[in-house]
Structure formats: structure tokens, C-alpha cells
Amino acid sequence: MLFNYEAVDGTGAKKTGSIDAVNVDVAIASLQRRGLVLTSVHEAGDSGGFLGKNISLFDRVGMKDVVILSRQLSTLFEAQVSALRVFRLLGAETENRVLSNILTAVADDLQAGSAISAAMAKHHKVFSEFYVSMVKAGEESGKLDETFSYLADYLDRTYELSSKVKGALIYPAFVVVTFVTVMILMFTMVIPKISGILTDSGVQLPIYTKVIMGISNFLVSYGFVLLAILIVVGFFTVRFIRTPAGAMVFDEIKLKIPYLSGLYRKLYLSRLSDNMNTMLASGIPMVRALELTSTVINNKVYQNLLTESMDSVKGGKTLSESLSAYPDQIPGILVQMTKVGEETGEVGPILKTLARFYSREVATAVDSLVSLIEPLMIVLLGGGVAVLLASVLIPIYNIASAQ
Description:
Helices cover about 75% and strands about 5% of the residues. By secondary structure, the protein is mostly helical.
């Protein structure tokens, strides 16, 4: 929660700003620890009106911000800068207002005697459970610089992969949206006017022209009803997907869609291998690594799989034995490579190799998908435009010929 404040410092100078805190009491305590005498503290939305509320909407903390932050933390800890000074410095220099307030709050907690991981855990929307556990492992091992370096590398790879997937889909999505918009305008504004001319002419209309005119009449008469139905269906579908049962159904569907299922599976396997390697390299035990990976893999099917594998490992089985019980989700090569890693004591490096392999597979699959989508869209869009033009131009040509 964001609070705006007005205060006076030790020299008598007026200070204004904002601070992110759980509640107003925590905000006041944090500001007083900075040596400020408060004159006013209120929630950002209370006096900022519409613009005040927009601060939390537009100054969000994205994955890119966390990647850069992790890299900065790694560099500063490697330079033997104290933790308190690190977070004070980054809090003052960070341009993102929300992240700046969070780093300042972390610094306040550190000054009050809190551990870094415990201070970060209070801001779970920015620092995930995986992130906090990695930092905690770094504190326990005394290798915080290496931990933040691992985190920066891991988040950088994750961000690059997700950006590639999203970027590849922007062009097809833009073309489809543009085409649908143009078609709706044609059916609701152009075709109705031409339909009147064709109907009054008395010429026998082809079946495809009648179909086009029927669709146009339907959209003109019931377009808003159809739009309302689609909005309601979309609303309840989204609500259902956000439930545990709905999320499970949606994730199962993603793993059954032809071609896309292979892409999703490789993406999850890449995420699984990369997470496990990063945490094992940081000294996190296998059971805890499986537990944390299940929370960040972002698929209920694989989440349940990892949770059950964690229970199997607790029961004395090896990781490869636990994963081999799921041949539909875990390919044999991953199981065999993991088994080799267990026998040689190199599970981490083996998982790192697998993560790179599956990342390349995802990149290749995305490129292939895009190269397949583009000509397919051209054919479909061209065919749609051709049918629409033929249904209008051929009757007009017949009218002109009859005269």
C-alpha cells in the first residue's frame, strides 16, 4: 500500500514523498526510523484523486526491473558494500517509484535488525517465494553475491524466453485483430447498403451472396446482443480459469492442443530444469527445490507432478525414479540424463545442460510456429476477402450485364 507523507528532517528542512508499507502504522514507524518528524501521512489514493490512484497502476514492477535489480545487487555485494547501504543506494537511484519504495522499506527493515530474505518476503508481489528462498540460502552460505548472480542469470534467461514467445505472437495477433475489425465494419456498414441495391434489382442472387447478406443482417440486428453474450461468456470463463479446478482444466487443454502442446511441454521442461539447477547450485536441498519449482512452473499438471515427486523423494526414492512415473509429461531423455547426474554426483550441471537444450527447442518451435502462421494467415485472410468481394461484385456485374 502506497502512502504519501510530509515531514521535517533534523535540519528543519521540509520533506515530501511516498512510501510503500503494509499499513499506516508501519509507514509511520519506517519514516520515524529515518529521523523524520511527520506532519502528514495518508494513503496515496486519498488525496491524489484519479492521478493518485494511477501511480500503482502504471509504476508496476516488471520482470525486467527485477532482472536489473538482481544484477545490481550481485555487483554491489561482490564489491563488499554493506547490505544496508546497498538497499539505501538502490532505493534512492531506482527510477521505478514502486520498486524504490520497496527497496527503501527493505533497508528500513534491515536497519531494524531483519534478515534480507525476511525483509524481501514482505513484498511477495515483487520477490517470489523462489527468490526469497534463494536469498535465504545465500545468507546461510555467505555467498549472497553468487546468489544474486544466479538469480540475475536465471531471470534473464526466463525473461528472454518469455519475451521471445510474446514477441513472436504480436504480429499474428495484430493482423487477426485488424482483419476482424475490418470485416465487422464491412458487414455492419458497407454490406447493408449494397444489400438494398441488390435486393431492389430483382436479380437472382448466388447462395454465397445470400449467406453474406444473412450474416450482415444478423450482425446489424443482433450485434450488440452477440457482443454482450461474448463478454459474459468471457467473464465467467476467466473466473472459472482462476479457480483451482478451472486452472487444472485449462492447463490440461494446453497440453493436448496439436503442435502447441509440444511447445508448452518444452517450455515447462525448460523452466523445470532451469529452476532446479539454479536452486541446487545455490545449496538448496532437493526436496525444497522441488517444492519451490512446483510453485513457479505455472502449470497445474506439472505442479501436481512435482509435488508428488517431492513426496517420493522424501520417501527415499531418487529424483529420476520419481520423475519416471510420469512418461506423458517427462520425456525419457530427461529421466535418463538425471539418472546419470545422480550416479556421477553432477545433477546440477546435467539439469543446466537440459535447460539450455529445451530453451533452444522452445526458440526453434516458436520460430517454426511463426513461419507456419504467416502463410496460413495470408491464405485464410485472402480467402475471406475473396469470398466477400465475390459475393458483392458478381451480382453487381450481373446487374450491369442485364442492362
